[in-house]
């Protein structure tokens, strides 16, 4: 698996996408009051793992913990998700969570 682009490398590769990511995604969408950052992290992790977007999961796992989700809650998210998105998606996400905590 290749490494996901971070903010700096995205800026170098696609400056406009980096700008939109900062201004629209993190400057607006993530700050909207209807859902908390914690809830947005749950939705994001469930979506990324269900769609098999493994490259973005490590960053979002760390971000979710910054947004107040415990490791136990993340494990529960992926356990629950196994029944809706499939075992492979859940187990892949759990493996990445385990790597983040080692």
Structure description:
It comes from Candidatus Pantoea symbiotica. This is 4-carboxymuconolactone decarboxylase. InterPro entries: 4CMD/NDH-1_regulator (IPR052512), AhpD-like (IPR029032), CMD-like (IPR003779). Pfam families: CMD. Residues 15-98 form the Carboxymuconolactone decarboxylase-like domain. By secondary structure, the chain is an all-alpha fold. The chain has 2 domains: 1-32, no CATH class; 35-100, AhpD-like. 71% of the residues lie in helices and 0% in strands. It contains 6 helices and no strands. The protein has helices at residues 7-13, 15-26, 37-50, 57-66, 71-85, 87-100. Helix 1 (7-13) crosses helix 2, helix 3 packs antiparallel against helix 4 and helix 4 crosses helix 6 (87-100). The longest helix is centred in the last third of the chain and has 15 residues, at 71-85. 16% of the residues are buried. The model has no long low-confidence stretch (mean pLDDT 93).
Q: Which class best fits the helix and strand makeup?
A: mainly alpha
Q: With helices defined by DSSP (H or I, 4 residues minimum), what is the helix count?
A: 6
Low-confidence stretches: none
CATH architecture of the largest domain: Up-down Bundle
Domain Carboxymuconolactone decarboxylase-like: 15-98
InterPro entries: 4CMD/NDH-1_regulator, AhpD-like, CMD-like
Protein name: 4-carboxymuconolactone decarboxylase
